Amino acid sequence: MPHVITQSCCSDGSCVYACPVNCIHPTPDEPGFATAEMLYVDPDACVDCGACVSACPVGAIVPDTKLVAEQLPFIELNAAFYPDRQGKKLPPTSKLAPVPPAPEIQRHGMPLTVAIVGSGPAAMYAADELLTQHGVRVNVFEKLPTPYGLVRAGVAPDHQHTKQVTRLFDRIADQPGFQFFLNVTIGKHLSHAELLAHHHAVLYAVGAPNDRRLEIEGMDRPGVHTATELVAWYNGHPDFTDLPVDLSAQRVVIIGNGNVALDVARILTADPDDLAGTDIADHALAALRESKVREVVIAARRGPADSAFTLPELIGLTAHRLVVLDAADRDLVTADLAGEHDALTRNKLDILATLGDAAEPAPAGAHRIRLAYRLTPARVIGDDAVTAVEFVRTGTDEVCRVDAGLLATSIGYHGKAVADLPFDAAAGVVPNDDGRVTGAPGSYVAGWIKRGPTGFIGTNKTCAQHTVHQLVEDFNAGVLTDPAESRGALERLVAQRQPELVDLHGWHAINAAEIARGDGIRPRDKFTRVNAMLAVAAMAPRPTLRDKLRAALRV
Ligand code: NAP
């Protein structure tokens, strides 16, 4: 089999359109694309041209001859998506996946100008889609001095392949018509009404920054964290630099078993020397070097067949960590295996059935992760700090106590209300019709604030494209009001409200300085204080008048 899609697949579909024989599925127009855990190469149709390798923004596609040992299960995983043709190659075809048409601007006069709030994947994919049209201007507002949202502050540092998508985002940000307004908070420095006055439309791609809260006794104890806090802490998000993370106990419990729980468990059980070659925050690396944690228990309230983590992430976890089950959980896996399941679930159960036995002592000093099932969280025990977590076996009255010095809840994210827009507090989203905000003309949403906190980086590409299509349709129909103020007026207003504005040049300076601090050993050594970022951005060479004229002519 020539090419194989591996763990870091972001599902943005770039490979699908690059493939000359349409052998990567599901394609964005096929059912199942929105919920697919990854994309798959058809081994019998692949012509081994490598076009997909160049198109993939996260380096997830590898020729079979170059797979490393832990990637070998992905050969079978790709093939299993397709009917078994018993090794017979499909005849070559020149069929291409249907490329969705770009949102064509048909209205002449004042060029479309859009404010995007947020700079994560949904924001950057939306900007890219808008900039396919000549003359469009996109202004991206971000409250931090650094862009790219969860790719910078959410993706685990040991998943550097996934972080490579920032190279694509850098190229999008360098396009004519794109402007960064970093270190600017909408709702503080500028209001929604002010953004609307300076643009035809405002598109919010602000994600889902809050955690779902676990309502059990004892959640206010020191040593209880949300996964979001821990993830932001080890990723160097400046708001979490000083989070007190106590790793002095031998065991950590994580509640919830989605991919975020797996990320946190992997980082807490990693060899610090391996992490030293990543962009993990210095303070987190120092804490992990002193860590006494030897076991992380990932506790799910349902059974093995309902595990929330995806199959590629389970494969990655078991390849790099000692993962164990206790006897009762092994029985649950065996019982689930006797039932009917879709292919992905069966594959997960097959892997779970091969895990080590928690009763066997781990080698001295070794780290391990225990997957635990049917544990409904009941209360946190401890006076000054967490000492244990009490669960009830789901569906029974049996109480079960797990000793631990740190508890992380990883039970999903939740969106936060956006000032001046309607909000569905239960779902944590801004109510919308495929991106058009309900009852708020000129306002649009994309990403997690539009559809809720599910999916992968690339899922946001199709999501953002749909929103942009609605926006352009409204622009063409003359529904959007022309901005009352000029571009210069917007720049003056922002500079007046936020003198410490960081622009593209400022970001380039921060980026270059972080890479230089990495000293060739790490991809970057992140600044974790806003002041340090601003000091570097302030030193960025300012564009000359000639640069400005050249940029204006490129639009
Ligand atoms: P998630 O996949 O929705 O998992 C949430 C977990 O919390 C589930 O196990 C859920 O159990 C549990 N839970 C919810 N409420 C609970 C409660 N009251 N008590 C106990 N357990 C509770 O969320 P996530 O891990 O935050 O991930 C969010 C999205 O980001 C997912 O789509 C994920 O795939 C994606 N992501 C992907 C990657 C990657 O590809 N590497 C990395 C990180 C995140 P039930 O199933 O029983 O509700």
Attribute tags:
555 residues; alpha/beta; Alpha-Beta Plaits; Rossmann fold; FAD/NAD(P)-binding domain; 7-stranded parallel sheet; 5-stranded parallel sheet; 23 strands; 15% strand; globular; binds NADP nicotinamide-adenine-dinucleotide phosphate
Summarize the structure.
The protein is an alpha/beta fold and 555 residues long.
Number of strands: 23
Mean pLDDT: 95
Number of domains: 3
Q: So, CATH architecture of the largest domain?
A: 3-Layer(bba) Sandwich
- Biggest β-sheet: strands ordered side by side in the sheet: 10-19-11-12-15-13-14
Ions, cofactors and other ligands present here are: NADP nicotinamide-adenine-dinucleotide phosphate
List the uncertain runs: none
Work out the strand percent: 15-25%
Catalytic activity: 2 reduced [2Fe-2S]-[ferredoxin] + NADP(+) + H(+) = 2 oxidized [2Fe-2S]-[ferredoxin] + NADPH
EC number: 1.18.1.2
Protein name: ferredoxin--NADP(+) reductase
Keywords: FAD, Flavoprotein, Iron, Iron-sulfur, Metal-binding, NADP, Oxidoreductase
Characterization of this structure:
The chain is an alpha/beta fold. The protein folds into 3 domains: 3-80, Alpha-Beta Plaits; 113-209 and 415-503, NAD(P)-binding Rossmann-like Domain (Rossmann fold); 213-411, 3-Layer(bba) Sandwich (FAD/NAD(P)-binding domain), CATH 3.50.50. It has 21 helices and 23 strands. It has a 7-stranded parallel sheet with strand order 10-19-11-12-15-13-14. A 5-stranded parallel sheet has the order 7-6-5-8-23, with helices on both faces. A 3-stranded antiparallel sheet has the order 16-17-18, with no helix packed on it. It starts with a strand and ends with a helix.
